[in-house]
Queue: 2 jobs
Job 1
Amino acid sequence: MIPGAPAAQAPVVNPPAVMPVGTQTQVGVAPTTRPAGNENVYTTKSGDTLWRIAVIQVGSHEAVEQIMELNRDVLKGSNRIKPGMKLKLPARPGAAGTAQANSSL
């Protein structure tokens, strides 16, 4: 340091962009959407399985049997799915109870 010389300023470092609180991401998983309202229809994509749809869209792997039952006409006795199929889904567990509980508020 040279006497009488102005002190060097530390470089300005900007913090990295921060995601809003509550935002979650999964690498390699495309976001999915379900229609609003009472329609529980899911359009399959490449790489989907009934198990994965049950877990991600309905919330439980136990919903596989329900999905197969609701879509007998589409699946035609098979558990194989193809991209672009429109599958009816059961309601998420507790969804009806939540709506009913909220309606009494």
Note: Confidence is low (pLDDT under 50) at residues 22-36, 97-105.
Job 2
Amino acid sequence: MSTWPGWRCPGQLFDKVFAINVHLFWVRPADAELLRIKELLRRSGVLHLVYETPGEEKAGQVAKAVTAALANHGFTAAVTTAGPPSLICITARLPHDNDKTAPRQRAVS
């Protein structure tokens, strides 16, 4: 993961980004990683963060921390859960102005 923030893919935007049991999103600020994800998602792109936690209490803690971090970076998030052990999927999206390659609407005067 240490080289990922420097990974380059010129001109590429992605529809989906998945991270499964990547704990950095809830154990510390993931500012650099979330900024990079924002750069890589197209307008309708979705970020899926999936965690398998040891129980409902931990699932709640993870969901709270991750959704707060996402909100701090402009994402809106929804949490889906499944039972024991507690499996959670946090689905996040950015406002539609994120896609730099999408055609822009022009005002007609």
Note: Residues 13-96 form a domain with the Rossmann fold fold (CATH 3.40.50.150).
